[in-house]
Write a structure and sequence with these properties.
Blueprint lengths: L5 E6 L2 E6 L10 H15 L6 E6 L4 E3 L12 H20 L5 E5 L2 E3 L1 H8 L2 E5 L3 E3 L13 H9 L1 H10 L2 E3 H7 L4 E3 L4 H13 L3 H13 L7 H12 L3 H11 L7
Parallel strand pairs: 2-3, 3-5, 4-6, 5-7, 6-8, 7-10
Antiparallel strand pairs: 1-2, 8-9
Helix pairs in contact: 1-2, 2-3, 3-4, 4-5, 8-9
């Protein structure tokens, strides 16, 4: 896979996507969004990939937001199309990816950058990470799912305060309020993410895919998440992974998935 704004490396069933626009603090322009979407879709069906890690080039920025120069003169119709296209093309694709996606947040994660991290299934942040949704300072609101996912992660009151004040928070606060799963030293960030990935790889990929689907169902209006859980639980019984997992347990050995 070759892209203009991404670097992709796959080792030991872990694929790392590095957003490579350091001179722009890895800001999300339309090309980068398109390339990220394509790369996630390709890795989702890549048999050599079990876990995906997304990070930014350098130690200053994960993603410092969207590329404002691309939409500074948009009207309301164009703005709606921008938001809809971004959500459907990339952010929903990440959230619904059947393989776990870990955001390795190194440095600034602002606007679309924080929205990218929130769409991921797990967020690990370096101690120097700073994050926020500054859109209201530009006369906008978050448009790539930020109002919804931030509320789901940290609650309505905290989400509204972050959005309305446009403030940045540090990694320790993100951990305290549930926005980060872990905070680690900058030099340890990718290795720590890979440690999590390796623990995931020990388990059934089909069960993990079902777990992602069932968990996401709890966040969708007009869908009963309990019913989805029942359905996905039942489907697991027809998989080779279930047969291997239960056989290994009874034989007192580690399963091979």
């Amino acid at each position: 896979m070759t892209f203009n704004n991404l670097l992709i490396n796959t080792e030991h069933k872990i694929s790392t996507i590095t957003i490579n626009r350091p001179n722009k603090l890895n800001a999300l322009n339309s090309q980068t969004i398109s390339e990220l979407s394509e790369s996630i879709k390709l890795l989702e069906v890549d048999i050599s990939t079990r876990v995906i890690i997304i990070t930014g080039m350098g130690n200053k920025s994960f993603v410092a937001g969207a590329d404002i120069s691309e939409f500074a003169d948009f009207n309301s119709e164009q703005g709606m199309q921008l938001s809809e296209l971004g959500q459907h093309t990339l952010f929903n694709v990440i959230e619904n990816c059947s393989k776990p996606v870990i955001a390795a947040v190194n440095g600034f994660a602002l606007g679309g950058g924080l929205e990218l991290a929130m769409a991921s299934h797990i967020r690990v942040m370096s101690v120097n990470a700073k994050m926020g949704l500054p859109e209201t300072s530009l006369g906008l609101i978050p448009g790539y799912g930020g109002t919804q996912r931030l509320t789901q992660l940290i609650g309505k009151g905290r989400a509204l305060e972050m959005i309305m004040t446009a403030k940045m928070i540090l990694a320790d606060e993100a951990l305290k309020i549930g926005l980060a799963n872990h905070v680690v030293n900058q030099d340890d960030l990718l290795n720590f993410c890979k440690q999590i990935a390796n623990k995931i790889i020990n388990n059934s990929p089909k069960a993990i895919s079902s777990a992602i689907k069932a968990t996401n169902a709890s966040l969708v209006n007009n869908i009963n998440g309990f019913d989805v859980e029942i359905s996905e639980f039942g489907k697991c019984f027809d998989t080779d992974d279930f047969k291997e997992g239960t056989t290994a347990f009874l034989e007192k050995r580690k399963p091979i998935f």
